[in-house]
Amino acid sequence: MLNWNDLNSFITLSRSKKLINAARKLKIESTTIARRISRLEESLKTQLFHKSPRGYSLTDSGIRLLRYAEKVESQMYSISESFMGINPNIKGKVRISVGEGLGVEILTKYLNKFYKKYPEIEIELLADTRSRSLSNRETDILISLSRPKKGRLKSWKLCDYYVKLYGSNEYLKNNPKISDIKELTNHKFVNYADELIEFPELNYLQEINSNPNIVFSSNSLRSQLLAVKNGIGIGLLHSFVAYKEKDLKVILPKKINIKREYWIVVHENSFHLRRIKAVTDFVTTILNDEKKFLSTVK
User: Does the residue 298 lie in any domain?
Assistant: First the structure.
């Protein structure tokens, strides 16, 4: 029979990565945690962690055990709430993979409100163009640009947003006038770096120009925005990011208005976990509040 203290130490170390950090969270000696992990590995006859100078990382066996251990953790909390009237703080790390625009411009604005309610949850925000695996625990929550077509996943649509073509006042003043999509062939473009894009929905430049003259590319939306502001070229930008830039002007607004979607995706094995539910509820509420803004901003 497995010992809950051993499992709890295992869970905490998997999230903390280092013995000293896990010991601090559990308020016990690091040697005690190490002893518990050794006992657990001996009981299960498998290695649960890889140890390196950077800390502890889960082996394949450790990843499998964590799925079960977190279910046990959730049930332990439920027992405490139901029979003892105890409502322990929800704790642990939650990794969110989200595009830079939504992650930086929207989600981070609400973090103070979130931490007032859940002070012991650590959010790790990965804001880029990578599509990380939920089944391999590369991320806990994925904000995708489309609904997943396969896998043991829970998903729901958050909102729509729009991408428009922008140019700086200086660029538009010093370059040929744009009155039709065909005239875009005469202009320089700022775009995402193709080889770094793992969401096909971000390849929207191909929708308006099959052979664009790209002079600058980046996997960072912020870098693209600054390049457009500095007159390097024109670029397709999230309207909810670019709208407040006074130096930028929308180009062909009636002809170029690309619609995209945000979806939240969670693996069914972790969907029930309290810390995951706290964060998904948080994100869903935020996007519900921001939905009108994201879909109508000019």
Answer: no
